[in-house]
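Appendix B.2, paired examples.
Example (i):
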Amino acid sequence: MTAVLYDLSLRMGYSYDVPASGARHIMRLMPLSLTNRQRLVAGSITISPTPDEQSHFVDFFQHPATAFMLRAPHEALDIRMQARVQVESQPIAADFSPLLADLPEEIAGIWSLAPDSPHHFLGESPRLTQTRDIADYARSCAKPDLTAMQIAHALCTRINKDFTYDPDATTVDTTPLEAFKLKRGVCQDFTHVMILALRSLGIPAGYVSGFLRTIPPPGKERLEGADAMHAWVRIWCGETIGWIELDPTNDISAGTDHIVVAYGRDYSDVVPVIGVLKSYGGQRAVQAVDVIPLK
């Protein structure tokens, strides 16, 4: 097993037409430490202006989060994260996942309601409502003789082939059905469509937020989505295999190029920065990410 060490830097900035006040925000930006997956060596987050109040907590899905408040009027908000993370390569596992018809029995045998229980990732969630169009699309990939893992890989490849990566086609509020009809979008759209497709078949699936390596290996093209935070899909493939991660934007399994920040049911569970403030007029947001492998 090999490991890759990365230095990460992220800047998220917001500027307001009219100074904002009474701002309350929650951040989920720091990469996780995950057994046999990745290790957070060190990390820090700075906020400007300096918050008047700040607290830390762990959410239901066991992600460290920071809540902060800015009382005074401010024309801009600047958040910067720096971290060093070690990501381990994952062994290639044989496919011992059940056939789709046998998966419900294995799910029923899971009595746990812990954050990683498959039961949390089967039904609808805040941003994901089942639609017939996406369910029909999923069934076209679900041949009776395929295992849950094979179906997941088939859907990943199909979405990558049928959809065009287009950062101008959608926004953060675009619904999965809208993106599905456009057959265009970004990693969030690819991920939401794939999650809905898998859930419509009874395969537990969730959302992964993180970073994607920006410097490609020698001789390989740069991966799409590397200029901002990235998203991909987590799939439960039975008791023996457990969870796997697939990236439909690039049609690959998540590996040492993928750095996990948060797991959730959909984007609403892992929003990097969310909050409310008092202001009017428009606002502009900028995001810059660097993922630098250390030699």
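Example (ii):
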Amino acid sequence: MTESNETVPAQTIHKGLTKAKIAKIIFFICVGSVLMGVSIEEFLVPNKILDGGITGISIILSHLTGVNLGLFIFILNIPFFYIGYKQIGKTFALSTLLGITVLSVSTTLLHDVPVFTKDPLLATVFGGVTLGAGVGIVIRYGGSLDGTEILAIIANKRLPFSVGEIVMFFNVFIFISAGFVFGWNRAMYSVLAYFIAYKTIDLVMQGLDESKSAWIISENHQLIGEAILARLGRGVTYLNGEGAYTGDNKKVIFCVITRLEEAKLKSIVEELDSNAFLAVANITEVRGGRFKKKSIH
């Protein structure tokens, strides 16, 4: 076994995270967990509005028994630490353990703090945004604040449903239960808060400066490529393609832009070749290469 290690390039061997990166991950997971705690104790729970997942179950059980909410959140998530460790990895499990611990402590410490609002609509909107921001930050830095998705990943291997469908089914059950416990108007507020949180998570994960990929096929590929470089300041790559129907060789332009540049890109393509094929798709993350914008005149 020792001979095989000697032939492996040093840069391919797994390297641990630096202390600075570990500190950054811990900091942001703590920030995200505290934000979720603020959402739960300052907006949602005082107005009898639920989150989905294990947190939603914890809120219902805490309301029915009078036992501390943070205790339920921590205890009910314990099985998922082990599952996460087995299915995803040690780093994920430790990050999740940190997030859940900070969340449980936050809800306990914030329980007696005066609530921000008693208006259920304001609590729904601001609670949903704060909740989504907190969860999004934790996910972005490699952790989780709820075991539902881990459970869904396991169930997905045995059931003919996607992870998203399993999570949605689980949450529908929770919100129906909330209707019986807190009343149906509060259950509907809970669904609205969940939707707002879901959209906020996407925003936090993707960032405000969302990137897009563009694929352009045109006879005027050279002109279009030069125009994108000069007028948008974005680099382009020319790819070789072949039409399946005609067998003709084609040049394909590939470039990455921000969502704010999409309209200008379309106008450039329309101006130089109104018959060009253009496809634009969302990209969740861009790294490396020369994505940095060049200066334009």
